[in-house]
Design brief:
The complex is a heteropentamer, with 2 copies of chain A, 1 copy of chain B and 2 copies of chain C.
Chain A lengths: L1 E12 L2 E12 L3 E5 L6 H8 L7 E6 L2 E3 L6 H4 L2 E4 L10 H11 L4 H14 L15 H13 L5 E5 L7 H18 L2 E5 L3 H7 L2 E6 L1 E6 L1 H6 L4 H6 L5 E8 L5 E5 L2 E5 L5 E7 L5 E3 L9 E12 L4 E6 L4 E6 L1 H7 L6 E6 L4 E4 L1
Parallel strand pairs in A: 3-8, 3-9, 6-7, 7-8
Antiparallel strand pairs in A: 1-2, 1-4, 4-5, 9-10, 11-12, 11-14, 12-13, 14-20, 15-19, 16-17, 16-19, 17-18
Helix pairs in contact in A: 3-4, 3-5, 4-5
Chain B lengths: L8 E8 H6 L1 H12 L3 E8 L1 H10 L4 E4 L2 H9 L7 E12 L12 H14 L6 E3 L5 H12 L4 H5 L5 E3 L4 H11 L2 E5 H7 L6 E4 L6 E8 L10 H12 L1 H9 L2 H4 L5 E2 L17 H5 L1
Parallel strand pairs in B: 1-2, 1-3, 5-6, 5-7
Antiparallel strand pairs in B: 3-9, 4-7, 4-8, 4-9, 4-10
Helix pairs in contact in B: 5-6
Chain C lengths: L2 H16 L2 H34 L5 H10 L5 H12 L14 H25 L3 H9 L4 H11 L1 H17 L2 H7 L9 H10 L3 H27 L1
The chains are: A alpha+beta, B alpha/beta, C mainly alpha.
Bound molecules: adenosine-5'-triphosphate (ATP) (2 copies) and magnesium ion (MG) (2 copies).
One adenosine-5'-triphosphate (ATP) sits at the interface of chains A and E.
Chain lengths: 354, 285, 229, 229, 354
């Protein structure tokens, strides 16, 4: 059973198309990640779902019934909750803000007080209960906003960049909270994020949006097997090479691009894109005997220390490859700018897409 | 009709400002209500025009005014039942004590003629302030200009020395005082203002300055909502010796002289317009 | 020669201290009438302003222009208009409201209604559009949303109500034409001031004006206190 | 009996079409006086309101209460007060401003000044505090910052100016007391309405009221047009 | 020469202390990163520097002269620019917003137009020039805010989380823009960020703030050699172990903690914290001959695929270690939950702090 279905949804502002032919089905209890470049329509889509915006055409279906921002949808709206991207607060204290959703639902005072403090504690905001909501810091506002929506225990939670203003520790806390909600309360969540790793970590399904939906699927599929160039570029798939694929012996495919030949274990023919994950490439000073089918020689042209890993750019003639390695191996191998090295990667590590 | 408040009958009276502003009606009201505890007398003061308008609409039961010409029109139209003159006094021609036009001692129309003459010569020094509001006072003023042989609409009204205030008597006196100009005022209002302004009453007793107040109940046939019964009671009271005594004594204590003269059952005094032709209605009276 | 002002202040203090019975009566009536009309106009004008603000419809801009134009309506005109309605020969003549305090409340309510509608719209426009979204998103009904936004705008809204009250308590056109300035029945402070001014009692007029302002100050303090709560 | 209203509308149209010369004269004077006083009061009131809004000082709340209380000042009281100042025996008697249009402009400016100051403060309060920071941070001088915030609040500010203009053009107390309603010199639409009403010419009064509203509508349209630019 | 010096700065709101005894010296042309948990006072510090807030005590010195939010600081304020954390816009179009700073400085129309478009292009916002600034998406607002401040060419640029709402590609663009500004225009930048990697990548110096400044120094020092527990926790230093240090032979220090002995090449004595970066630990199935002094046996208890790397948690008795490895080595070694492995790390990879 789908909690939410979106059919052929379009949204225009004036003549500017923001969303085009969006189709989406969200199962109950699922966490759906929405990812895409800035201005691609993520917020707009969430607002449409939350009935704050009227679609130009198309349907939004909640538990099998079409819903719209017209009258008579209060009971549906009360089952949804949204954390906005921009910090927003009613005048008054943090307590007033968090209690709002319960007040308008007419709960009694004691229940409200318990619930509010319970959620403030959950978000580490209990000390701020009587602070003016307008004076909160960026991250505090974001946590208050989350508490404010959680007190109403929504069935469908819409989160618009819920951790963009949080430091790593707070972010981690919020992430476990989100996972907890999904698991324990069976809350269905649709969240946008610019943090691709967060998207991968939290989502059961990911939709890559850019006006249209470009790909939708499990995180590992979207991130490792982009269906098209846009997704590949966007999720930061490196080493994307355009070439011509031809069948080779033993069920392998050979892809030719400039002076480079790449073997892939996948089947394809004709014009195609290839990608190899930077951490799937090993480096060695000498050409070694190995089961890796692909061996390319190149020269180190750039070294970046990313903190966790060393990023190398290696010029292999017609293509520039990105390779990641640990600091340890980097130091052990005594690599430096200009080093000429062999890159090796397995045919199974070569991903093909249109 | 039932305008009862606290079980009382309501009698609504429209009056010109002079009767209200001097405070005469307040005393009459108290005495009248004491006599008829069942009647609540309510006084509305305004210009003669709006008072008549109220009467026509049936919003008031009786009007107390001082503009004979229009009063008679009202009777003719059948809206009012009868003119009941109950008091009179005089209009005063007032001006700066220096009397730049030198009108002291003249009769009214002579004075107006002189004012016109001097005003034409030096409009800075000699000015006349008119109420210009179609009130009883204004009507009388126009009649005097006519009597002085002047064409009001053409010679007087647009003259540089002639100022129309378009306001009530008190305000007009204030303006005249500020501008040190001449004006015509009912005696009641002038006496009430005497202390506050520096103007002097220069002409007080000319026969064409006679100012008669009368009470006109509304005609219950034409204005069905009216409380004719109570209105007639008020007329009766005003004309009674009790009412006439209040009128005769009013103001003696405060201003050292009476502001109104009671008729005491006598006939309505007629203005002695000696030197000029009076209007048809004036003659008919 | 400002001595009438000083004299007026002295008289005002005197009238207040001695609790002059006629003064007390007039003051209470003034308060009753202006507060009632402010209440009536607020109860109609604020929701109406809210409706206009929240509904999108054709000609909205034009309607707002019309409402703002009515800020310029002279009190006498409203007085005349309501007079014609309430006059015994008028449409509502049967209710006998002319020359009654109730009639004055009606007239003043009509007078200040545009101010309340217009400044309600102004006040609500000052609230960020987002707040509406926030309320809706947290499950507020339409009515609750409007209430929330009004609460956000309460500082400005109270300003509008103070304005309406100020206009009602200070106006004289309606009070004179509809009330008739009947001693002991429809006489209020402003009509008394008019009367006393026309009688030339400037100091007394000023004294009455001061009393009116004192009353207004007290009402404003109360309204502001409510707003701050 | 609303026939005077219909009659009034008819007369209004007639007066407008025939460009009745006295009517034209009165209308132009009315416009001149009310626009001048609105301008004067705006030039003083808006900066003053800005100053009060932006400065933090002790007693600010109290001052604002006082200003709001002055919304309740009856026009007659202002009229009397200015009258005493401008009167022959008053402090400014020497300027001979009593019973002149200039005197009326002064009186009406005094009358509407509190409205402009108060509603400027209200309007500015509607602007987010952050906008001030943004302007300052981008290098705006204090003056430029205030100007920027006023521009942000211009919808509400224009509302305040329309209010002030409405009050000026519709008031009658100051116009009568300071102007004196002198025909051909200080007579304006509202004082004419008063006069005609006291004469019982209700239809004509209504006609004049309609003309006044038409003028106000035009002025409001112009002001709103400026605001939208 | 320091462009900005801050001396003994304190800021309280009511009785709540927000910043305490802040001392900071920022050299011209430097990029200073401000990092700390939410609500630690980062925004407040930037606002104090930008003269939007009055310090409770202490001094802010710009080019040797003390400055304050009082009058007469316009020329100083015009040399600074700030991008706020919360999206903020004047009513009007994007163009109006970006032109603002130039308009108030009285430049002529043509200059302004050129400058505005030049900066909008720089930020990929040229198509939005005539859009209402209030209708921009989160990321677009952030880019507009940057353009708005860049047109004024400030000498001191204050950036409050300038990329929190940006997708990875836009973020990368803004980052190179920031680096470019520093290099080419010698702009001094103070920026806050919650993205530790970004902080490391962009900053010449990093200050770790939490009411007080806990550490200030080069990124590598702050991230690899935290001076105290707070910094270590905050920058996500893993494998922090508390132990007793004692001198050992050959200039080495031995740190004892539970059943574990760790050798460090640094000198220390007594109670101390140890940290080892997860990527500095190698794994092998068998105890191997190696120059690494530290060899500990443990059991894999958790495997997380982070996308780029595999994170392992390895239980070594009294301590739980985190180890990062590439997917390739992970697959090659056929590691699984329960695998018993040897961890090796060099004595030089062991960091000590109080
Ligand atoms: N009223 C409007 N008129 C024109 N364009 C608009 C309007 N409102 C929004 N847009 C545009 O719609 C697009 C989508 O906006 P939206 O806020 O949904 O983006 P987003 O995906 O959430 O971006 P971000 O990641 O930056 O938050 C943006 O380019 C924005 O400029
Ligand atoms: N007016 C105020 N009254 C009380 N506390 C305030 C006030 N203004 C700010 N604060 C508090 O000051 C602290 C610091 O706020 P600041 O905005 O500087 O934090 P920050 O480091 O920028 O956080 P974030 O990373 O979440 O943006 C916060 O805890 C905030 O709640
Ligand atoms: Mg968004
Ligand atoms: Mg912050």
């Amino acid at each position: 059973m789908y909690l939410l279905e979106i059919e052929n949804l379009n949204k225009k502002y004036g003549s500017k198309t923001i969303l085009e032919d969006i189709n989406l089905k969200v199962k109950t209890g699922i966490n759906m990640g929405l990812i895409g470049p800035t201005g691609c329509g993520k917020t707009t889509l969430l607002r449409l779902i939350d009935l704050l915006e009227t679609p130009s055409s198309g349907k939004i279906i909640f538990e099998g019934h079409e819903i719209s921002p017209k009258k008579g949808n209060l009971h549906i709206r009360r089952r949804m909750g949204m954390v906005f991207q921009k910090p927003l607060a009613f005048k008054g204290t943090v307590y007033d803000n968090v209690a709002y959703g319960l007040n308008i639902r007419g709960y009694d005072k004691e229940y409200i007080q318990n619930k509010v403090y319970q959620n403030l504690e959950l978000l580490g905001m209990e000390d701020y209960a009587h602070q003016n909501a307008g004076s909160l810091s960026g991250g505090e506002s974001q946590r208050m906003a989350l508490a404010r929506v959680l007190v109403t225990e929504p069935d469908l939670l819409l989160l618009d960049e819920p951790t963009s203003n949080l430091d790593p520790l707070s972010r981690e806390k919020i992430e476990s909270l989100i996972l907890h909600l999904k698991k324990e309360k069976d809350t269905t969540i649709i969240m946008t994020t610019h943090d691709l790793i967060q998207g991968q970590r939290l989502s059961d399904e990911i939709a890559i949006l850019n006006q249209k939906i470009f790909q939708i699927g499990k995180p590992e599929d979207v991130f490792r097997k982009p269906k098209n160039q846009f997704v590949a570029d966007f999720v930061g798939v490196k080493n994307v090479i355009k070439g011509q694929a031809k069948k080779d012996q033993e069920g392998l495919t050979i892809i030719k691009s400039g002076n480079i030949d790449i073997y892939s274990s996948k089947q394809a023919e004709g014009d195609i894109f290839v990608s190899i994950r930077p951490e799937d490439i090993s480096l060695s000073w000498d050409k070694v005997k190995t089961s890796s089918l692909n061996e390319l020689k190149g020269k180190v042209v750039e070294i970046i220390d990313d903190g966790a890993l060393i990023h190398l750019k290696i010029d292999a003639g017609s293509e520039l490859f990105t390779v990641y390695m640990t600091r340890k191996s980097f130091l052990d191998m005594k690599i430096n700018i200009g080093s000429e090295l062999w890159m090796e990667f397995k045919a199974t590590a070569v991903h093909l897409f249109q | 009709y039932s305008g009862a408040m606290d079980g009382k009958e309501v009698l609504v009276v429209a009056t010109t400002t002079s009767l209200e502003d001097t405070g005469l009606l307040e005393e009459i009201e108290a005495a009248f209500e004491a006599k008829y505890p069942n009647i609540d007398m309510q006084v509305i003061s305004g210009g003669t025009g709006i008072a008549i308008e109220y009467g026509k609409n049936g919003d008031v039961d009786i009007i107390l005014v001082h503009d004979k010409t229009r009063e008679e029109e009202l009777i003719e139209d059948g809206i009012g039942t009868k003119r009941n003159p109950f008091a009179y006094n005089y209009f005063y021609i007032v001006g700066p004590s220096s009397d730049p036009a030198g009108i002291k001692g003249m009769d009214a129309s002579e004075a107006f003629e002189k004012i016109q003459e001097e005003g034409e010569k030096d409009p800075e020094a000699v000015e006349f302030i008119s109420r210009g509001d179609d009130s009883g006072t204004h009507s009388r003023e126009k009649k005097i200009w006519k009597a002085a042989g002047l064409d009001y609409n053409n010679t007087v009204q647009n003259a540089p020395w002639y100022v129309e205030s378009g306001k009530g008597m008190g305000d007009t006196l204030t303006i005249a005082d500020e501008k040190q100009a001449y004006t015509i005022s009912d005696s009641g209002t002038f006496l009430a203002f005497k202390d506050k302004i520096s103007l002097e009453a220069l002409i007080t007793e000319s026969p064409d300055l006679l100012n008669v107040y009368s009470a006109i109940p509304m005609n219950p046939d034409k204005v069905p909502t009216t409380n004719n019964d109570a209105a007639n009671k008020l007329v009766e009271f005003l004309l009674s010796s009790e009412g006439q005594k209040i009128i005769a004594e009013f103001g003696v204590e405060e201003y050292g002289q009476n502001l109104f003269t009671a008729l005491n059952g006598g006939p309505e005094p007629t203005a002695l317009f000696s030197s000029f032709l009076v209007g048809q209605s004036e003659l008919a009276a | 020669m400002l001595s009438p002002v000083i004299d007026g202040i002295y008289q005002a203090i005197n009238l207040i201290i001695t609790l002059d019975p006629e003064m007390v009566e007039i003051t209470l009536r003034t308060l009753y009438i202006s507060l009632s009309s402010t209440l009536v106009a607020t109860l109609i004008g604020v929701p109406l302003g809210g409706l206009i603000h929240f509904k999108a419809f054709k000609g909205k801009r034009g309607l707002i222009n019309m409402i703002q134009t009515l800020y310029s309506v002279p009190t006498v005109l409203v007085g005349l208009f309501v007079f014609l309605l309430l006059s015994r020969s008028g449409i509502f003549g049967g209710f006998n409201l002319l020359f009654t305090p109730t009639g004055m409340v009606i007239g003043q309510s009509v007078l200040i209604l545009p101010l309340l509608v217009g400044f309600t719209i102004n006040s609500l426009s000052g609230v960020q559009k987002n707040i509406e979204d926030l309320a809706l998103s947290l499950g507020a009904s339409d009515f609750q949303t409007i209430y929330t936004i009004m609460k956000e705008a309460r500082y400005a809204l109270i300003g509008a109500i103070i304005l309406g009250f100020g206009r009602a308590i200070s106006e004289v056109g309606v009070a004179l034409l509809i009330g008739g300035n009947i001693r002991g029945f429809t006489r209020v402070i402003t009509t008394t001031i008019s009367l006393e001014t026309s009688k030339g009692n400037i100091a007394l007029s000023i004294a009455l004006g001061i009393i009116l302002l004192v009353i207004a100050l007290i009402i404003n303090l109360i309204l502001n206190y409510i707003q701050e709560k």
